[in-house]
Specification:
CATH class of one domain in chain A: Mainly Beta
Number of strands of chain A: 7
Largest interface: A-B, 56 and 72 residues
Helix content of chain B: 40-55%
CATH topology of one domain in chain A: OB fold (Dihydrolipoamide Acetyltransferase, E2P)
Structural class of chain A: alpha+beta
Distance between the termini of chain A: 68 Å
Strand content of chain A: 25-35%
Shape of chain A: elongated
Largest sheet of chain B: 6 strands, antiparallel
Oligomer: heterodimer
Shape of chain B: elongated
CATH architecture of one domain in chain A: Beta Barrel
Chain lengths: ~140, ~950
């Protein structure tokens, strides 16, 4: 057997080991339910509940923001984000939190907000009000 | 329905552009076919001539199309879809290029443009591989052009849209009631370019990156040409030249993206392992692996198959990256995603087509690619270089697999609708923990293999070990010094740091002792040294970034534990943080950008100032100025570190909608105040000092108002010393009352005068004690604080309160009044009217002093005039004021500051790595 073949085989073995260990880095999006049961650090995707109170008082603590999130099972719970409130939070379409349950509250330290059409406005802008209101 | 004759449309550029588009498509096809026939043995030279001519026409067509799009963009012809989507009236012309390649179509065209330019250069080079190379290039161009056709192709009942045409009229792409209006063009205004993309990075990053993308097509085409013509040796030389160029440019393009992220977009990150970043890095890694095997193959004849494989793979990975970026499949896992164009299947076809093509050529020729029978020697350069290439391939595979998770999810959900997609929880540690070891291997291999020789010219073992020992000893020393300077925190990082130190030392050793400073041979040293230095920079800045903006003096333990990287910074109140004093001074608005001024003072242990400077973190608004699109940090560069600061602002300050909501939550209490009153609010004691008829409110402008009234109220919080003054004001313009509420952020107070105050401001006549005065023309009299002169008369008085009727006799007296206390001069014009024999008087009034004047009578015999003068009793006026004491303070920013030590090693090292490739390319050019 050639030396290069041996190296290649070793690499393939290493790659297999890596793939197995790396599967631990991967997870599905959790829900409040599953996150509470497992107690693991998970990602929860959901929608910011606009009608529920949110608390952000940067004077007291700029890195503490609490709000309500509705997860994919349609369950709404209060969550705490240990970060400054994202700039475009109110108009976010989807919020993805990374964190885990601490006692009875989901505490996140990472957040990703997805906003509608981040880079482009869909509507056609007009110079002035036109009688054709049906423009979208 | 009749065709509507639209007004103001410019149809010609569209016609020319569409013609050029179709011509580009046809000539690409024609060129590919012609060149294909010209590769046949004993082919008529007319075939290659035809191929060449059609490629030239194709190139000219592509450039014409680009020119047409630029023409309509430059002239802001919003009737074109691409223009209305990417340009606006207020878009500065310097961003027109950015606007062009912001969209998918524009960036495809940019890519095609570079293919055309490089293709022209290749044809001029009169290569023996011209026919197969340009044949494949024309095929690539054909597929890319199809992305822009925008035609519908029917398969049975289903229609499939082929491409997205960038030069179509808006009304050809969407159906809107707007198009019933023949003059719709004049109503359109563009969406413009995202303010986030309005910077010079957006001007230089995409063209460089796409030049890199386009140049990878040449090693690919040359590899196919080598397989096609079975000239397995001859293609290696031109391929090496192209791939060195490509590696350098693509690398610089990727680095520019990192620099953009570092400088402007994110808070000090240059690489986030974002899928889009990864899929542009992976082809580069594979290309570099290919360059190494190419060198081996050229010098020894080994590794020919792998050279083919690497170059073919590199371009396919470029296409795969295009697919990932543009198909929308990455969804929320990437910040880079383009807007979707509906071309997913066309992109899949592109990847599959060229992969199959490459595979066909490769495996059909596998047997006849020469490979030496004997194995590489263990201590030969080719063996270790090949191992190095395998390590790079290994790295590329790992990154690709992880970044392809969204594709895997998509495929799984195709088979199983209930499948829940997987995500990588923390991408950055995930990638880092494996790529660390790639870094170790690459640094060690690049350090050792420079001392080895090709083939049988083996180096003396003793010499080799001497060099390795030098590298190892000095390497350990460097690790020690690094630990003294910053810190490595874990054994894995120490190993990596050792490998990189070894790489740095060995490459310097090689430069000095072996090639003796001959810079012509130093391009590989430059790259390898750069690589190790770059990783040292990553270790320095990544492991040792330090948050400055944390406050260790916070008393609340629970709070300080939770406190992360941000602190509130109040206007004009300096705050101490980890060796720095920071003071927020205020903000200014320029265009879409609001800049926050923060004074920084670096001090030593004894609070002696070491350095003072001002930083300007900023916020960029979106297009209608109602929202902040992004916060941009400011940075300060030093030799050994960078300082980054970022400012965020509490929502109500920038968000119009949120500000309204916030106003609704305020709890106002009512107070009726007269001058001199001391009153108690929920938390403070206030005194109404005066009522000002020239309001002091900072936004109040007398020019905008006919009349203004403001208050001076002083507040003192219970038990505190500081006294704050507020000036809530009202303005009147015509019949409209304008509110100028005032706030005291320190007291969480917001207050306003009730609108109804204006009604009481016009004191009823009977409450004024009038005094009769008789004046002659040009006579001056004294009245209280005033000197009043009757200057002239106006027989056609203009006054809002006087409406002229037939038969009226109306005379206005023009009185010039000097207020003695401040020498202010003003005019009053009371009117005397005789209507149907009865006298009326229309009063005039000066608001700031409260002087009222009636023109009471005219005595023609004595030529004098009677006036009634009076003062309103403003000191006894009572003002209704509303005060809320639950206003969130807004006079602060949320401040973050970080220190990145050693970041310049990263930039220096990575730039050297890419420049090494470019130097290699230049040297190869000189040698031919």
């Amino acid at each position: 057997m050639k030396k290069t073949h041996i190296v290649a085989i070793v690499m393939i073995l290493v790659a297999a080991v890596i793939l197995i260990t790396a599967s631990g880095d991967v997870s599905t999006y959790a829900t409040f339910e599953t996150a509470k049961i497992s107690g693991d650090r998970v990602k929860i995707a959901g929608v910011f509940a606009k009608d529920r109170p949110m608390v952000y008082d940067p004077v007291k603590n700029a890195n503490w923001f609490s709000f309500y999130l509705t997860d994919t099972d349609n369950k709404t719970e209060k969550v705490i984000l240990l970060k400054a409130k994202p700039a475009d939070f109110e108009r976010s379409e989807q919020v993805i939190l990374t964190g885990k349950y601490q006692e009875d509250t989901f505490v996140a330290d990472e957040v990703l907000t997805k906003c509608p059409s981040k880079y482009k406005d869909e509507e056609i802008a007009l110079r002035k009000k036109s009688p054709n209101k049906a423009i979208q | 329905m009749d065709e509507i004759q639209y007004v103001g449309e410019h149809l010609l550029p569209g016609i020319i552009g569409n013609f050029a588009l179709v011509l580009a498509f046809c000539t690409a096809l024609l060129s590919a076919i012609s060149y294909y026939y010209s590769t046949k043995p004993y082919a008529d030279s007319k075939w290659s001539k035809m191929g060449r001519i059609s490629f030239w026409i194709h190139g000219v067509s592509v450039i014409t199309l680009i020119a047409c799009i630029f023409y309509v963009m430059y002239n802001r012809m919003f009737e074109y879809r691409y223009v209305i989507e990417h340009v606006s009236d207020d878009l500065p012309m310097k961003y027109i290029l950015s606007a062009f390649w912001e969209g998918q179509e524009g960036s495809f065209l940019l890519w095609m443009f570079w293919h055309v330019v490089l293709g022209f250069i290749f044809i001029r080079g009169k290569s023996m591989f011209e026919s197969p190379v340009i044949c494949i290039l024309a095929l690539i161009q054909l597929v890319l052009t199809s992305m822009l056709l925008g035609v519908y192709v029917g398969f049975g009942d289903s229609m499939y849209k082929l491409g997205s045409n960038p030069i179509l009229l808006l009304r050809d792409t969407v159906d809107l009631p707007l198009f019933n209006n023949a003059e719709y063009v004049s109503l359109l205004k563009g969406n413009g370019l995202n303010p986030l993309l309005q910077n010079y990075w957006m001007t230089i990053h995409p063209p460089t990156l796409f030049l890199g993308f386009a140049s990878t097509a040449f090693p690919f085409c040359l590899a196919i040409a080598g397989l096609w013509t079975k000239q397995h040796k001859a293609w290696l030389k031109p391929a090496l030249r192209w791939s060195l160029f490509s590696g350098g440019i693509l690398g610089i393009g990727i680095l520019m993206g990192g620099a953009w992220a570092y400088e402007a977009l994110t808070f000090g990150g240059y690489w986030a392992w974002d899928p889009v970043e990864n899929t542009s890095l992976v082809p580069w890694i594979v290309l570099v692996a290919g360059i190494h095997t190419n060198l081996i193959a050229k010098s020894t004849g080994y590794s020919m198959r792998s050279t083919y494989a690497f170059y073919l793979m590199c371009f396919i990975l470029i296409l795969y990256s295009t697919f990932l970026t543009r198909s929308g499949i990455l969804g929320d896992t990437s910040v880079h995603a383009f807007t979707e164009m509906g071309l997913e299947w066309q992109l899949v076809f592109m990847v599959v087509f060229f992969t199959s093509l490459a595979k066909l050529f490769f495996f059909f020729n596998w047997k006849n690619i020469p490979a030496p029978k004997t194995e590489e020697k263990f201590l030969s350069r080719e063996f270790w270089m090949f191992i190095g290439a395998l390590v790079l391939l290994f790295s590329a595979i790992l990154i690709t697999v992880s970044s392809s998770l969204p594709v895997f999810n998509k495929i799984m959900s195709f088979f199983d609708a209930t499948y829940v997609g997987r995500v990588i929880e923390d991408p950055i540690p995930h990638y880092n923990k494996y790529q660390i070891w790639i870094g170790v291997f690459v640094a060690l291999l690049s350090g050792i293999s420079v001392f080895l020789r090709y083939g049988s010219r083996t180096i003396k073992l003793k010499t080799l070990f001497t060099h390795i020992a030098i590298g190892a000893i000095l390497g350990v020393l460097l690790v020690y010094l690094f630990e003294r300077w910053l810190g490595l925190h874990a054994w894995q990082y120490r190993v990596l740091m050792f490998a990189c130190s070894f790489g740095v030392v060995s490459n310097l050793d090689y430069l000095i002792s072996v090639i003796r400073g001959n810079l012509k041979l130093a391009s590989s040293v430059c790259s390898h040294f750069g690589f190790s230095l770059m990783i040292i920079g990553v270790l320095a800045s990544g492991l040792n970034e330090q948050v400055i903006s944390s406050n260790s003096f916070l008393l609340d333990v629970e709070q300080s534990e939770r406190l992360g990287n941000a602190l509130p910074l109040y206007e004009n109140i300096p705050m101490f943080m980890n060796g720095y004093w920071a003071t927020y001074k205020g903000d200014t608005l320029e265009g879409f950008t609001r800049r926050y001024e923060v004074d920084i003072r670096k001090v030593d242990e004894n609070n002696n100032t070491l350095e003072e400077y001002t930083m300007w973190p900023s916020a960029i608004y979106d297009k209608d100025m109602a929202k902040i699109a992004a916060f941009n940090p400011d940075k300060r560069h030093y030799w050994m570190e960078d300082i980054f600061v970022n400012a965020q602002v509490p929502s109500p300050k920038f968000d119009v909608k949120f500000a309204h909501e916030m106003e609704d939550t305020l709890r106002y209490n009512d107070y009726i105040l007269t001058v001199g009153d001391t009153f108690k609010t929920e938390n403070s004691i206030g005194i109404l000092k005066s009522i000002d008829f020239e309001p002091k409110h900072k936004d109040f402008n007398m020019d905008d108002n006919d009349l203004g009234v403001g208050l001076s109220i002083e507040f003192q919080q219970d038990g505190k010393e500081e006294i704050y003054e507020a000036n809530p004001s009202l303005g009147l313009k015509g019949n409209l009352v304008f509110q100028y509420p005032d706030k005291l952020d320190r007291l969480n107070m917001k207050m306003r005068i009730e609108d109804s105050f204006f009604e009481t401001l016009f004191t009823p006549e009977q409450l004024i004690d009038f005094e009769n005065k008789v004046l002659k023309q040009n006579e001056t009299i004294d009245y209280k604080d005033f000197k009043i002169t009757l200057s002239a008369f106006d027989r056609n008085p203009q006054n809002d309160l006087y409406e002229a009727q037939d038969g009226d006799i109306a005379i206005a007296a023009e009185l010039t009044v000097l207020r003695k206390s401040d020498n202010k001069i003003f005019a009053l014009d009371p009117i005397y009217v005789l209507r149907e024999g009865r006298p009326f008087s229309i009063k005039d009034y000066e608001a700031s002093s409260g002087l009222h004047v009636h023109f009471a009578n005219i005595n023609p015999q004595e030529e004098n005039f009677e006036f009634k003068l009076g003062m309103d009793k403003r000191s006894s006026m009572s003002v209704p004021v509303q005060i809320a004491e639950n206003m969130p303070a807004t006079d602060f920013i949320i401040f973050e500051a970080k220190r990145f030590p050693g970041i310049n090693f990263f930039w220096l090292g990575s730039t050297m790595m890419m420049l090494g490739l470019i130097f290699g390319f230049i040297r190869k050019l000189r040698n031919t």
